[in-house]
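STRUCTURE:
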């Protein structure tokens, strides 16, 4: 395997805690540097890990001992940081989305191609045992030819618990752009790329009230639609229906269901790495839990970086930038379809990532 991949993290917000926990136990990865606009925060993270140094963003992206930049900044900074790292000859792995829009994302991918470096992007939850066991069931023809799928994410709104929820209700926010990457990456992994979409959206109220923290009771404006329904046509002809909502209370249905001629699958929440996969076959009146049969056991956020390390030369990593671009394209086009009332084609595509054999990370 040679030397471990040397990683530098930019952005040490809440999500970085989960990444740090995963990187600490990945022998194929060595964390060497961290940077954040809050220099004190970077210093605290570095002080907690022997041999780790804190530095500025320009110092990290140009450091000779950093092979890959792990980009955990806010979405508005994703493209800029990625382009800086790529310009310095670094590979990049970023939090979702790949960029704020497909124009920025295409610039990142083109720069990486020109420079000869790799681009990876979250979510890597699809590499865990939950989605991968479901994928193996589909690939093993346990449900017969897939016909349709549903993906449901229903919550009453993040302002109930988030102390500063403003960005969820501004352009670039909303339930689709916030949570859609998990569900769409799972659907493409399970059923292949999407060729066309039809969307419709709504907004229940023009303001929200912050429910916790120092700003509790403050009224904030809502400038984006907060409920979206979409119909996706996959290249195989499978039809997937999505419901992404910040307006309703809850859903009792599974997060994803896949329906075939022989059986239906209940797939666990794609925001997590594990979870039970259940199947109900034609003629049966009960659901049966399938044994775990594929994916990374004990996976956490950041396993996509280790998967990149293990990717053979010349092959795309499973959580690669092309897949993230396709997912972003689907979301942009769904929103455009909802605004226009028309069925719209998806201009991009992405190969269905290779399956992950059952293994422990």
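SEQUENCE:
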């Amino acid at each position: 395997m040679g030397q471990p991949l040397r990683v530098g993290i930019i952005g040490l917000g809440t999500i970085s805690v989960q990444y740090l926990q995963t990187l600490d136990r990945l022998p194929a990865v060595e964390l060497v540097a961290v940077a954040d606009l809050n220099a004190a925060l970077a210093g605290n993270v570095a002080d907690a890990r022997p041999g780790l140094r804190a530095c500025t963003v320009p110092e990290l992206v140009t450091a000779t001992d950093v092979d890959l930049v792990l980009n955990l900044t806010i979405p508005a900074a994703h493209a800029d940081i990625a382009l800086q790292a790529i310009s310095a000859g670094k590979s990049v792995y970023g939090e979702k989305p790949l960029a704020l829009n497909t124009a920025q994302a295409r610039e990142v991918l083109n720069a990486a191609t020109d420079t000869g470096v790799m681009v990876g992007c979250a979510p890597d939850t699809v590499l865990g045992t939950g989605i991968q066991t479901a994928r193996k069931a589909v690939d093993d023809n346990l449900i017969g030819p897939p016909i349709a799928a549903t993906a449901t994410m229903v919550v009453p709104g993040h302002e109930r618990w988030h102390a500063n929820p403003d960005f969820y209700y501004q352009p670039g926010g909303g339930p689709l752009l916030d949570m859609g990457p998990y569900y769409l990456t799972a659907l493409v992994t399970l059923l292949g790329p999407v060729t066309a979409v039809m969307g419709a959206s709504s907004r229940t109220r023009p303001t929200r009230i912050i429910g916790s923290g120092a700003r509790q009771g403050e009224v904030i404006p809502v400038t984006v639609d907060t409920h979206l329904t979409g119909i996706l046509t996959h290249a195989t002809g499978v039809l997937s229906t999505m419901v992404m909502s910040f307006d309703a209370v809850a859903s009792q249905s599974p997060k994803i269901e896949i329906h075939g001629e022989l059986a239906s699958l209940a797939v666990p929440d794609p925001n997590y790495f594990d979870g039970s996969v259940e199947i109900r076959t034609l003629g049966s009146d009960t659901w049966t839990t399938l044994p775990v049969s594929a994916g990374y056991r004990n996976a956490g956020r950041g396993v996509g970086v280790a998967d990149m390390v293990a990717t053979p030369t010349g092959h795309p990593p499973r959580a690669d930038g092309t897949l993230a671009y396709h997912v972003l394209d689907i979301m942009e086009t769904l929103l455009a379809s909802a605004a226009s009332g028309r069925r719209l084609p998806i201009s991009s595509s992405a190969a269905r990532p290779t399956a992950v054999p059952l293994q422990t990370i």
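REMARK: The domain at 5-121 is CATH 3.40.50.720 (Rossmann fold).
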